[in-house]
Amino acid sequence: MNIAFHWEPNVPLNCREAAEIEIRSDFKTKIDLETCHQGKVSITIHYAGAFGSWIEGDIVCSCGKLCCVFRGMNDFQNITYLCIVDKHS
What we know:
Layout: E1 3-7, H1 13-29, E2 41-48, E3 54-60, E4 66-73, E5 79-83
Parallel strand pairs: 1-2
Antiparallel strand pairs: 2-3, 3-4, 4-5
Protein backbone atom coordinates (compact mmCIF):
# COMPACT_ATOMS: atom_id res chain seq x y z
CA MET A 1 0.00 0.00 0.00
CA ASN A 2 1.24 3.46 -0.89
CA ILE A 3 1.52 5.46 2.35
CA ALA A 4 2.43 9.09 3.04
CA PHE A 5 3.33 9.79 6.67
CA HIS A 6 2.67 13.21 8.16
CA TRP A 7 4.14 14.04 11.55
CA GLU A 8 2.88 16.56 14.05
CA PRO A 9 5.77 18.66 15.38
CA ASN A 10 5.63 17.10 18.85
CA VAL A 11 6.84 13.68 17.57
CA PRO A 12 10.64 13.48 18.01
CA LEU A 13 12.62 12.86 14.82
CA ASN A 14 14.38 9.82 16.30
CA CYS A 15 11.02 8.02 16.84
CA ARG A 16 9.64 8.44 13.35
CA GLU A 17 11.53 5.66 11.55
CA ALA A 18 10.55 3.03 14.15
CA ALA A 19 6.93 4.14 13.97
CA GLU A 20 6.82 3.96 10.18
CA ILE A 21 8.32 0.47 10.21
CA GLU A 22 5.80 -0.75 12.80
CA ILE A 23 2.78 0.79 11.09
CA ARG A 24 3.82 -0.56 7.67
CA SER A 25 4.17 -3.99 9.28
CA ASP A 26 0.71 -3.63 10.84
CA PHE A 27 -0.74 -2.97 7.39
CA LYS A 28 0.43 -6.44 6.37
CA THR A 29 -0.71 -8.25 9.52
CA LYS A 30 -3.21 -6.34 11.71
CA ILE A 31 -5.08 -3.70 9.75
CA ASP A 32 -8.01 -4.79 7.60
CA LEU A 33 -8.26 -1.47 5.82
CA GLU A 34 -10.28 -0.99 2.69
CA THR A 35 -10.18 2.52 1.35
CA CYS A 36 -13.05 3.94 -0.66
CA HIS A 37 -10.67 4.93 -3.51
CA GLN A 38 -7.42 3.65 -4.96
CA GLY A 39 -4.23 5.59 -4.34
CA LYS A 40 -2.04 6.79 -1.54
CA VAL A 41 -3.32 6.87 2.02
CA SER A 42 -2.16 9.63 4.36
CA ILE A 43 -1.26 8.86 7.96
CA THR A 44 -1.00 11.68 10.49
CA ILE A 45 0.63 10.88 13.83
CA HIS A 46 1.00 12.90 17.02
CA TYR A 47 1.93 12.34 20.65
CA ALA A 48 -0.75 12.68 23.30
CA GLY A 49 -1.07 12.27 27.03
CA ALA A 50 1.23 13.32 29.80
CA PHE A 51 4.81 13.51 28.54
CA GLY A 52 3.80 12.04 25.18
CA SER A 53 3.00 8.69 26.76
CA TRP A 54 0.90 7.52 23.80
CA ILE A 55 0.44 8.18 20.12
CA GLU A 56 -2.74 8.91 18.23
CA GLY A 57 -3.38 9.29 14.56
CA ASP A 58 -5.63 8.85 11.61
CA ILE A 59 -5.52 7.25 8.19
CA VAL A 60 -7.17 9.15 5.36
CA CYS A 61 -8.13 7.88 1.88
CA SER A 62 -6.78 9.60 -1.22
CA CYS A 63 -10.17 11.33 -1.53
CA GLY A 64 -9.77 12.90 1.91
CA LYS A 65 -12.24 10.69 3.78
CA LEU A 66 -11.23 9.38 7.21
CA CYS A 67 -10.71 5.58 7.03
CA CYS A 68 -9.18 4.65 10.35
CA VAL A 69 -8.08 6.05 13.70
CA PHE A 70 -5.45 4.54 15.95
CA ARG A 71 -3.93 4.86 19.39
CA GLY A 72 -1.17 3.13 21.27
CA MET A 73 1.73 3.51 23.64
CA ASN A 74 4.63 5.58 22.41
CA ASP A 75 6.82 2.50 21.89
CA PHE A 76 4.67 1.80 18.78
CA GLN A 77 4.49 -1.91 19.65
CA ASN A 78 0.82 -2.26 20.58
CA ILE A 79 -1.22 0.06 18.42
CA THR A 80 -4.99 -0.39 18.30
CA TYR A 81 -6.72 0.46 15.02
CA LEU A 82 -10.37 1.27 14.48
CA CYS A 83 -11.24 1.20 10.78
CA ILE A 84 -14.36 3.21 10.06
CA VAL A 85 -14.61 3.55 6.30
CA ASP A 86 -17.91 2.83 4.60
CA LYS A 87 -17.19 2.12 0.95
CA HIS A 88 -20.87 2.53 0.07
CA SER A 89 -21.44 6.09 1.27
